[in-house]
Design brief:
heterodimer; A: 775 residues; alpha+beta; Aldehyde Oxidoreductase, domain 4; B: 150 residues; DNA polymerase, domain 1; 2 domains; 5-stranded mixed beta sheet; 5 helices
């Protein structure tokens, strides 16, 4: 291998470190109108009257747009394949506001200060409605969050807005009730997972202008430029051909930019005024008025025989989608479909649940997307079961977990609102991951606890996880490669670089197939006018789906180059040996260098442009697997938890770029530790977001992470580019359960709700003390 | 009002509002490597060096830097290139939004201290948040840069 699976620094790292401009706000027109949004102060209200007259009088105010001024077309902001599995329950602006931070109206003015002043002059009369702020009270509540007509599902997803139900689903393999009855041991528990905020460091940012061809050009910090173009066209009635969406450098996404937020308003203002405009979300707006992770209540029951064979799993989920149903069904489905197949030898498995509306900030896509929630519940209850069976928890997993060449009926049943895709695991090195992780963490020496002192105790815990590699038959990626004079290539991809390194790894894949070094391939990503289509950066699709598209394009181009070289060297294609430097006619050893070849075909004889487009849609979604092990220390008095090390052993097939793959895993591990221990989106009892700044929403800092140990299993997935599977999400899944299991191993207290805070452990220890005293 | 600032080794005059923060002034004058990530002086992506010490430009009034030296990453080009080299080797680059600010802080730390422990390095850099990397790869790169005496 020349370019794949070898140390390759990010192709853009240096330019970005040197501060070159390239992020969305760097590219706004200097004379852009500034857009600000007047947001609802109530969790649920109807706008009775809105008077913008005084604000419009203010010098410098360009336009104010209210719900009276926009087409009333329901749509979903979720950036997903079309038709979307999310309900069309959102209007550009509406007479109802459904959470604190929901959009009331949009102001565009020549400066931020004038926008702020104008917003103060807008008079809004609200009919305040009774909100639903507890998701366990939402279903069939007499207060209906979406009473409006016209909202609809695109195909059956269990949408019933009159019941506050955004989506619902049920499936069963075998007979769960009777299998649980026959089991020697049954354990049941209920788990709660909190909302988590993405906290990418670049806030949501958009700007727009009309170009000299009278087209609407939008720069957006998005994960899904092609979906943005389609959604804007549908919701605003602007012809698709008049819109160009450019994704510049993006400062992090993690799913938070897999939907449209400011795009709609920028498009509206610029389309109507003809003037450039921009919107940069404040950090408060990012917290209050974009997305966070779906909070869930997960009821798990699991049955096993005394010999350790798990026979049945029953999982019921209640998910809180907040005010709108973006990704409502699909996140919830993943809680089953990318979690339950881990234990594929059961006789019966059931998954069911409801996704309900509440008057909280909408939930949306977030790395791990349902899997982290389900993994916390399942991998916690596996440890609980092991204890009841008096089984070693790792042995119990090894006995029951997915192995290579095996399958699960769940793959065929559960898809994205439609049926799933049957597949066997052509690569699954989970057994190696577990074994190697045990060694790296020192399990034999440390399990369950070690190094106890009067004030502290150390312990280990673990969990296993799986994810996917794109959505089969839905996620499509495409790439175009062209040869230039001078013998270098342009690689144009719809795949969306958002900081995960996709531009680098796709360049490596192209370079490898074209047998050149990475500096000979110039990548350009995500521009709806210039690059071929790609669904975008989500569902762990880029390496596998977009990578296969790049490989396809490169293969075709190489074939074409060989054909042309054969013409020039007067032989057949079969006689040509191409090594990235020269084409050699093997019958007479005549050769032409790639540089001369490229120059000749551009300038000299039978000139033509050599370029090829490849595309790919998966017929399966080979899951990456991993085992995660935490080593932690608990203070016996304060219950403060210190993470000493986190060991990850991952099977993601070939690592196209080992260091960047490690970066994906480690970044995800730390986000997962944030979810496990520290991060929590919190509302006041009146529905106001408390955690609306980086002062009271704390992501992990450098001092929270002492060490990370990351290794990859040797694995080659035939269906992936050069043997690769995707790796963007799987890292985030294991920390919550691994930490919960380690806390139990340390002090015998089982925490079943996230985050696992010292307060919760203290409360549980007090309860335990009281029970002991009563006994 | 006008202020005179010695920025990246040259004197420049900026026209500023009395209530304007340095971050907004710098972005207005196209120093776009200085960025806004939050509203609460928490994230560190707006870091610049003020007379050689890292400060969050989002909470420094522009008028207060009159006649002082301000450095953005463009002012430490050679050192930033070195830092970038080690980031590349460790795979520590991800979204890059916070990197110019981090480079400035790392450079200032190297100027100020020798022989820092891992914990001391973490304490010095704690104000530069990163949501992408998980920190450890960055710290390995930073350590190598600190050991580079070239």
């Amino acid at each position: 291998m020349k370019a794949v699976n070898v140390l390759t620094p990010s192709i853009d790292g240096k330019g970005l470190m040197m501060g070159k401009k390239g992020y969305t706000d760097d590219l706004a027109e200097k004379d852009s109108l500034i857009i600000k949004v007047l947001r609802s102060p109530y969790p649920f209200a109807r706008i009775k009257k809105i008077d913008v007259f005084k604000a419009l009088e203010l010098v410098g105010v360009e336009t104010i747009i209210t719900h009276h001024d926009v087409p009333r077309v329901p749509f979903t902001r979720a950036g997903q394949g079309y038709p979307e599995p999310s309900p069309h329950d959102k209007f550009v602006l509406d007479e109802y506001v459904r959470y604190i931070g929901d959009e009331v109206c949009v102001v565009a003015a020549i400066s931020e200060a004038i926008c702020d002043e104008a917003i103060k002059l807008i008079e809004v009369e609200y009919e305040v409605l009774k909100p639903i702020l507890d998701f366990e009270e939402a279903l069939d509540n007499p207060n209906i969050i979406h009473p409006e007509a016209k909202i609809h599902e695109m195909f059956p997803i269990g949408f019933a807005p009159k019941r506050n139900l955004a989506a619902s689903y049920k499936m069963e393999v075998g007979d769960v009730e009777s299998t649980l009855k026959k089991a020697d041991v049954v354990v049941k528990d209920t788990f709660y997972t909190q909302a988590q905020a993405h906290t990418m460091l670049e806030p949501h940012t958009v700007n727009a202008r009309i170009d000299y061809q009278n087209r609407l050009i939008i720069y957006s910090s998005t994960q899904t430029p092609f979906h943005v173009r389609r959604i804007i066209s549908q919701a605003l009635g602007i012809p698709l051909a008049e819109i160009r969406v450019i994704k510049p450098r993006v400062g992090g996404g993690f799913g938070g930019k897999q939907a449209i937020h400011g795009e709609m308003f920028c498009a509206l203002v610029t389309y109507r005024t003809g003037k450039p405009s921009k919107i940069v979300f404040s950090r408060t707006e990012v917290f209050e008025a974009t997305y966070s992770r779906h909070p869930m209540k997960i009821e798990m029951a699991i049955g096993a025989m005394n010999d350790g064979r798990i026979t049945a799993i029953d999982c019921h989920v209640l998910s809180d989608t907040g005010a709108y149903g973006e990704h409502a069904l699909t996140v919830f489905m993943v809680t089953g479909s990318k979690v339950l197949p881990l234990y594929n030898k059961v006789d019966a498995v059931r998954f069911s649940g409801e996704v309900v509306y509440t008057n909280h900030t909408p939930a949306g896509a977030f790395r791990g997307y349902g899997a982290i929630q389900g993994n916390f519940a399942l991998e916690s209850i596996i440890d609980i079961l092991a204890r009841k069976l008096k089984f070693d928890p790792i042995k119990l997993r090894e006995l029951n977990m997915m192995k290579e060449k095996e399958t699960s009926p769940i793959f065929a049943i559960m898809g994205e609102g439609t049926e799933g895709t049957a597949m066997t695991m052509d690569t699954c090195k989970l057994d190696f991951c577990v074994k190697r992780g045990k060694e790296l963490i020192g399990w034999e020496r440390k399990y369950p606890r070690y190094d106890e002192t009067p004030t502290s105790i150390k312990a280990v815990g673990m969990a296993i996880a799986m994810q996917g590699s794109g959505i089969p038959y839905i996620d499509m990626g495409a790439a175009t490669i062209k040869l230039n004079d001078g013998g270098f290539f342009n690689l144009l991809v719809g795949a969306t670089e958002i900081g995960q390194g996709s531009d680098t790894i796709l360049t490596q894949i192209a370079a490898e197939e074209l047998e050149v070094t990475v500096d000979k391939v110039i990548v350009y990503s995500s521009d709806t006018d210039l690059t071929p289509f790609d669904v975008g950066a989500y569902a762990s699709s880029t390496t596998f789906v977009s990578g296969n598209a790049v490989l396809d394009a490169a293969r075709k181009l190489k074939q074409k180059m060989v054909q042309e070289a054969a013409r020039i060297l007067e032989c057949t294609s079969k006689d040509i040996l191409y090594d990235g430097e020269n084409f050699t006619n093997t019958t007479n050893n005549k050769l032409i260098s790639l540089v001369d070849f490229a120059n000749e075909i551009t300038y000299s004889r039978e000139q033509k442009q050599l370029s090829e487009t490849g595309s790919y849609v998966g017929h399966k979604s080979p899951p990456p697997f991993m085992a995660g092990f935490v080593d932690l220390e608990i203070d016996k008095e304060t219950f403060n938890i210190k993470i000493l090390d986190y060991v990850s052993v991952v099977d993601c097939g070939t690592t196209i770029n080992p260091k960047l793959a490690q970066g994906q895993v480690e970044g995800a591990i730390v986000q997962g530790l944030g979810m496990a221990l520290w991060e929590e989106v919190k509302y006041s009892s009146s529905g106001k977001l408390i955690s609306n700044s980086l002062l009271n929403y704390q992501i992990p800092t450098r001092l929270d992470i002492n060490n990370l140990t990351t290794e990859f299993a040797e694995s080659y997935e035939e269906s992936g580019p050069f043997g690769a599977k995707s790796v963007g999400e799987v890292g985030i899944d294991t920390p919550p359960a691994a930490v919960a299991n380690a806390v139990f191993n340390a002090i015998g207290i089982r925490i079943t709700s996230l985050p696992i805070t010292p307060e919760k452990i203290f409360r549980a220890s007090q309860e335990r003390k009281n029970t002991h005293e009563q006994e | 009002m006008k202020i005179k600032v010695y920025i990246n080794d040259q004197w420049r005059t900026f026209d500023v509002e009395p209530s304007e923060y340095l971050l907004d002034t710098l972005r207005r004058y196209d120093y776009l490597s200085v960025r806004r990530g939050c509203d609460t002086t928490s994230c560190g992506v707006c870091t610049v060096l003020l007379d050689g010490k890292p400060v969050p430009s989002c909470s420094v009034l522009a008028v207060s830097v009159d006649n002082k030296a301000v450095t953005t990453v463009e002012g430490i080009k050679k050192e930033a290139e070195k830092i970038s080299h080690y980031f590349g080797l460790e795979g520590a680059d991800q979204c890059g939004f916070c990197n110019p600010a981090l480079a400035l802080t790392v450079y200032a730390m190297k100027q100020e201290f020798d022989n820092l422990s891992d914990h001391e390095i973490r304490e010095y850099l704690i104000g530069n948040l990163c949501r992408c990397s998980g920190y450890i790869a960055q710290e390995k790169a930073v350590r190598k840069y600190l050991e580079d005496k070239s």
